[in-house]
Amino acid sequence: MSLADYDRPLAKRGRKAAPAMGAEIARLGLRPDLILCSGAARTRETLDLVLPALGSPMPEIVYDDAIYMATPSALMGLLRKLPAGGSAPKTVLVVGHNPGLEELS
Question: Which residue, 16, 30, 72, 100, has most beta carbons within 10 Å?
Fold first, then answer.
């Protein structure tokens, strides 16, 4: 029985890489105020493995199924909807999927 892509767990390689990504984010001094994460199983697992390296306080986390397989323009649309001005997050971490994220960068 195969799992739907949305429900597929994080691969062994991803479980190994995620804590290293978290450590690199911390090493670079990046401290997200807000994390936007796809609701897919593997992105949730990735985030769970990244979070310990970010320390406290815990940033706000929003799980959004619109991130799942989103195009670059859809991702930009989500980011543009974030609050502006004094209430705007300074640093946003998006945990999503390729090719959308890679094309956005």
Answer: 100
